[in-house]
Amino acid sequence: MSLLDNTILFVKQKLENAEAGHDWFHIERVYKNAVLIAEEEDCDLMIVKLGALLHDIADSKFNDGDETVGPKVAREFLEFQKASEEVIQHVINIIENISFKGGNFEKKFTSKELEIVQDADRLDALGAIGIARTFHYGGFKNRQLYNPNIAPLTNMSKEAYKNSNAPTLNHFYEKLLLLKDKMNTETGRRIAFERHKFMELFLSQFYAEWEGER
User: Helix, strand, coil: what percent of the chain each, to 5?
Assistant: First the structure.
């Protein structure tokens, strides 16, 4: 089988029992988003595909906050597949620099391929699926749906963002609604704009129902 086929098989097996917001289907959606965006960009499509497939191979949220696990797993897999060091390092750079991390994380690496995969990943945090993923993860962590007495915190440090236990609805203001203006590509911005509008409509309905107005 090809490197791409082997990577797909590896990721499916590795994430077989993953939390539903970060499972194989999340990876598959990000992969499709990345390929779609890449059609409009001058990029190395294989790096985009590998980066999308491996970007969440060992999310730090499920590894006691350890951000070194994902890059390590990806490197070991790609080395076993006899990928070149150039390809391996580029994919690792994508994994290490893709996350939101409170919105104040300064990327230590830039490339068109990273921009594409980052946009693809962020698109899966927006719109109907983004809403579903957010509440699923909140339930997974046993968080309140909403508490009007706990205000969202923006501009959090990386550590504060990682350690937050705020109600699920706060996540919209602490991350999701900020993503539209952080997209890297024109295709990403266009899709994000539509998904952002859907989330605003959802929030309007949510608050109306919370207050017993509808």
Answer: 65, 0, 35
Please write the tens of the pLDDT for every residue from 16-67: 988 888 999 999 999 999 999 999 999 999 999 999 999 999 766 656 567 8
From CA 184, how far away is CA 117, in angstroms rounded? 10
In this prediction, residue 108 carries a pLDDT of 77
How many Å apart are CA 131 and CA 125, to the nearest integer?
Answer: 7
The answer to whether the pTM exceeds 0.70 is yes
- Residue 151 pLDDT level (bands cut at 50, 70, 90): very high
Q: Are 133 and 151 in contact (CB under 8 A)?
A: no
Residue 103 CB burial class (10 angstroms; 0-12, 13-18, ≥19): middle
Between CA 186 and CA 150, with CA 137 as vertex, the angle to 5 degrees is 95
Distance CA 58, CA 22 (A): 10
Q: How far is CA 130 from CA 5, 11, 21, 124, 174, in A?
A: 27, 21, 9, 6, 14
